[in-house]
């Protein structure tokens, strides 16, 4: 006969004591006194926007990832839009992307009047499957947007080979992957253009902010114009040369990142290596703890890859549990573990269903994964106790629902 469970063993959702007293979020920024100092220095300077900090941040980030150029944008979404523009996407064109991503990856194709085409993901990494991508190439395809899901780099070698064969531009959505390594190179130095986000849950935070890295001078030039109304010089260049004259040569936007944000970015960049190391340590601890847990599958890592661990997505193995993902999610929330789900496949959002007629079943691997995924808390500021709380809660829920 089983002993009566203690109030620590009874799930909080069933009236037991939660593992934690307060909610642990799934992601959060870390801001130190030197970050605050860097921002206040800019507030006292002559430039709040489009000043020296922008170029400094761009050069530092380009050097860090190993790219020739970096162009800062006001968000990762704006940076994706810039990349779609620089790739020359226009009405009548198609661009292939992964359905298992944030909607912005596909939306940037729509912003240019082109059509996003979804190709299914590989079952292990949940990144764009190069074979499925090849099947979707038509005479209208102009670009491919692989996504480094959760910080595990997409399989860029075969995707770049496909692109070479068909004359396509590869825009890597590396918003999860600052610091990830693929076959010995950092994300940001491999694809034709790579896009980063500096949203607070990311590895480096500027509030809102984004960047495109590239080795091509023509793309960098086009990106710079696009973020500044399509104008061929910026205010600082005109200030320096004493000129008033400027020309608008393309239709662009105001997608500029401020000096205030860039100063924060530069200060945060100094801590990036340490933040990545901490995330990798947390991932290793999770992976070891969940290895033999019933009902839980940890994320896979391919050989010759070092993920950046923006997320730590587990998959709920319902074959070993007497419940479903929704209940596991609710149970973890009740334990005060701030879990999340990444992502509802983009083609299944009402906007995409209504506009393109998707009904489900188009990308079965991504759709099945979506039904199983739960993102556990993962951020570099997590304490050892936070990590152990997550492990305890996952263990508690697994034990309560195990078949
Ligand atoms: C994969 C992916 N792409 C694009 C974006 C958009 O970035 P931002 O929020 O900086 O606009 C995000 C943001 O969460 C993302 O996760």
Molecular structure report:
The structure is a single chain. The chain is an alpha/beta fold and 403 residues long. The protein has helices at 33-43, 52-65, 76-86, 104-111, 130-135, 156-166, 217-226, 235-241, 259-269, 272-290, 325-334, 350-356, 364-372, 384-401, and strands at 69-73, 94-97, 115-118, 141-145, 169-173, 181-182, 185-186, 193-197, 210-214, 296-297, 305-306, 312-316, 373-376. The chain has 14 helices and 13 strands. Helix 2 (52-65) runs parallel beside helix 9 and helix 3 (76-86) crosses helix 7. It is globular.
Give the count of helical stretches.
14
Give the SSE string.
HHEHEHEHEHEEEEEHHHHEEEHHHEH
Main β sheet profile = 7 strands, mixed
User: What's the mean pLDDT score?
Assistant: 96
Estimate the helix proportion, in percent. 25-40%
Strand arrangement, largest sheet? Answer: 1-9-8-5-4-2-3
Gyration radius (Cα, Å) is 22 Å
Q: Unreliable stretches, pLDDT < 50, 5 or more residues?
A: none
């Amino acid at each position: 006969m089983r002993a009566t469970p203690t109030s620590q063993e009874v799930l909080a959702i069933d009236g037991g004591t939660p593992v934690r007293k307060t909610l642990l979020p799934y992601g959060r920024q870390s801001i130190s006194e030197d970050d605050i100092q860097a921002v206040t220095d800019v507030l006292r300077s002559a430039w709040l926007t489009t000043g020296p900090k922008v170029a400094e941040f761009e050069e530092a980030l380009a050097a860090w990832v190993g790219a020739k150029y970096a162009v800062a944008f006001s968000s990762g979404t704006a940076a994706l839009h810039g990349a779609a523009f620089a790739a020359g996407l226009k009405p009548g064109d198609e661009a292939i992307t992964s359905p298992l991503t944030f909607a912005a990856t596909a939306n940037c194709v729509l912003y240019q009047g082109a059509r996003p085409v979804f190709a299914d993901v590989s079952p292990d990494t949940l990144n764009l499957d190069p074979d499925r991508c090849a099947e979707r190439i038509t005479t209208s395809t102009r670009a491919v947007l692989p996504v480094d899901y959760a910080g595990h780099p997409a399989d860029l070698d075969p995707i770049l080979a496909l692109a070479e064969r068909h004359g396509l531009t590869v825009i890597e959505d590396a918003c999860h992957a600052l610091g990830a390594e693929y076959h010995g190179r950092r994300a940001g130095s491999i694809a034709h253009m790579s896009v980063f986000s500096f949203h607070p849950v990311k590895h480096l935070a500027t509030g809102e902010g984004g960047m495109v890295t590239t080795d091509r001078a023509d793309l960098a030039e086009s990106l710079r114009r696009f973020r500044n109304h399509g104008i061929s010089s910026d205010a600082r260049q005109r200030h320096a040369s004493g000129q008033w004259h400027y020309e608008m040569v393309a239709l662009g936007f105001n997608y500029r990142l401020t000096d205030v944000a860039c100063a924060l970015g530069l200060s945060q960049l100094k801590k990036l290596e340490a933040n990545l190391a901490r995330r990798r340590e947390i991932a290793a601890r999770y992976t070891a703890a969940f290895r033999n847990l019933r009902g839980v599958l940890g994320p896979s890592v391919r050989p010759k890859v070092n993920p950046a661990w923006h997320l730590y997505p587990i998959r709920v193995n319902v074959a070993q549990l007497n419940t479903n993902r929704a209940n596991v999610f609710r149970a973890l929330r009740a334990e005060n573990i701030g879990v999340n789900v990444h992502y509802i496949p983009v083609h299944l959002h009402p906007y995409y269903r209504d506009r393109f007629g998707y009904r489900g079943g188009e990308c079965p691997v991504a759709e099945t994964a979506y039904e199983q995924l739960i993102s556990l808390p993962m951020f570099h500021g997590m304490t050892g106790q936070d990590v152990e709380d997550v492990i305890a809660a996952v263990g508690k829920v697994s034990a309560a629902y195990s078949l």
